[in-house]
Amino acid sequence: MTQRRGSDFAGLSVAIITPFADGGVDYDRLKQQIEFQLEAGTRCIVPVGTTGESPTLTHDEHERVIAETIQCVAGRAKVMAGTGSNSTAEALRLTKRAAKEGADATLQVAPYYNKPTQEGLYQHFKAVAEAVEIPVCVYNIPGRTGKEIDVSTIQRLAELPGITMVKEATGKLDQCSAIVGTTDLTVLSGDDSLTLPMMSVGAEGVVSVVGNLVPGDMIKLVHAASNGDYELARKMHHQLFALCSNMLGLATNPIPVKAAMRMVGRDTGELRLPMTPLDEAAEQQLQQTILAYGLASAAAV
C-alpha cells in the first residue's frame, strides 16, 4: 500500500485545552496538561483549535500559547498549530509565525462566517500552503464554519504539495471514504465517536477532544484499529462511545470537557465568554458519565 502524505501524523493528536485563570492564560497549567499527554504517549499536540477556545484569545495570547507548547513539547511529539482564520491575511500571519517558532504542521480551519465559494476556499488554502514549508491539515467542520469543503475541492487541494492532511468533521463517513479513495492525503477524524468507523475505511487517526481526559484509552483504540485488531478496537469504541456522546453532547465544546477535567482532578480553569459553565443538571449528568466510565475515585463536583 502506498504511504500517504501526512502519515507521520497518524495516531492520536489531542486538541489541547487552553487553561485560564484570573482572566488570563494559565501557562503553568498548560504545561502540566502537555506533560500528561506526553507521558500517555500522545503523538501530536494541537494548540489553539476549537477546544483551545481560539476565538476568544488575543493575537498575542494565540501566538504565545503556540510558542509555549512548542517549547514544552521540545521535540518529544509533534505540534500542529491551529492558525486558521476567516481572513487569509491573518491565517498567513499566524501560520508564518508558528512555522518560525518550530511548529511541525498547521491546522487550517475553513474560513468561517464569510462563507466563501469553493473557489474561494481553494484559493485560501492554496495561499497558506504556498507561503510556508510546514504541512497543512485542512479542517472541514461545516457545523462551526457554515460552509462545507466539497470533496472536489479537497481533490484539487491534494494536488498541492503543501496540503498533506484533512481533519474530517462533517460527520459523513461517505466524505471520508471519497477522500481516502481519490487522494493520497492522510485523513484524521474530527469526531471522537467516529474514529473507528473512519479508520475502518482508511482514516489514520483522530484529532481528539476526549483525549484530553483519557489519552491512553484513545491511543489503545487507534493502535488496535491501525493493527487490524478490530475485536479490541470495537471494544474500545463502545467503551469510549458513551463518554464521547454523553459528555460532548451536553453543551458546545469545550464546555463539557473543561468541566470533566475539573471533576477528575485536572482543573483547566475558567471559560471565556461567550462560553459559560454547565448548569447544575448538566453537571450532575456529566458526573454520572464520569463515574460510569470508571473515573470514580477522582470525580467530584
TrEMBL record:
Protein EC: 4.3.3.7
Pathway given in the UniProt record: Amino-acid biosynthesis; L-lysine biosynthesis via DAP pathway; (S)-tetrahydrodipicolinate from L-aspartate: step 3/4
Ranges in coiled-coil conformation: none
Positions bound to pyruvate: 51, 207
GO annotation terms (biological process): diaminopimelate biosynthetic process; lysine biosynthetic process via diaminopimelate
Family of this protein: Belongs to the DapA family.
Protein name stated in the entry: 4-hydroxy-tetrahydrodipicolinate synthase
Organism in which the protein naturally occurs: Stieleria neptunia
Underlying gene: dapA_3
